[in-house]
Amino acid sequence: MRSELLKFIGFFFLSYLFCILILTQSFLSNSSYAFIRSMVVFSVKAALPSAHIEGQIYKDISTGQIDHSSMYLVYGNPYLVQKAIEDARAAGLSEVSVPTKSVRFKLFEMFLVPLFFLISIFLATNIQLKTKWKGLVWSLLILGMFLFLRCIFLVLYHISSEQIGIYELSESAMGNLSWLVSVFTLGFNMSLAFILWLIFGFRKSSFVNQFLSLFNTKQL
What we know:
Layout: H1 2-23, H2 26-47, E1 52-59, E2 66-76, H3 78-90, E3 100-106, H4 107-123, H5 129-162, H6 171-183, H7 186-200, H8 206-219
Antiparallel strand pairs: 1-2, 2-3
Helix pairs in contact: 1-4, 2-5, 4-5, 4-7, 5-6, 5-7
């Protein structure tokens, strides 16, 4: 039992380090972050169709350095955005001051940390290969849904707070939304990943029989 547990822990850490190592490769890193950015924009646009939504790569104002691991989710009232563009064109201006706001998303912490944790813990689990991949795919889909839901709730909260003429929620609705945003933290995402592993991985692994035999031995 002890040797199996140590093997599991060691393989988990190796898998997690391997995921981090892959991310250090610039091509794979930029591609991964670009995919996540596009999915964030797509999911928020689909959930909040009445809002002007676009994504931008984060750039540090003080250093001018681009950080692919973060992004700005830009939002606004599409009517006000379009009016600003039309007014600028009518005035013959080459630059337009668009009335938009933005919220910063740290993609590594919000997405990759819990996803890498989930992948690593499944890879380390002694389970039939077919069952392992099936459980991992379902777990990734469920975890991903919650991660994108958090983005939607966070953007909706900011839009309502700014009172730009769309999605202006009542005080009670804002209170509930604020609670949801505060719940979906990194700790919650990691806990959810662990629970998904317990459901789709642990209970179908050899650990279950070993734990049962351990308790039966103690009872005897």
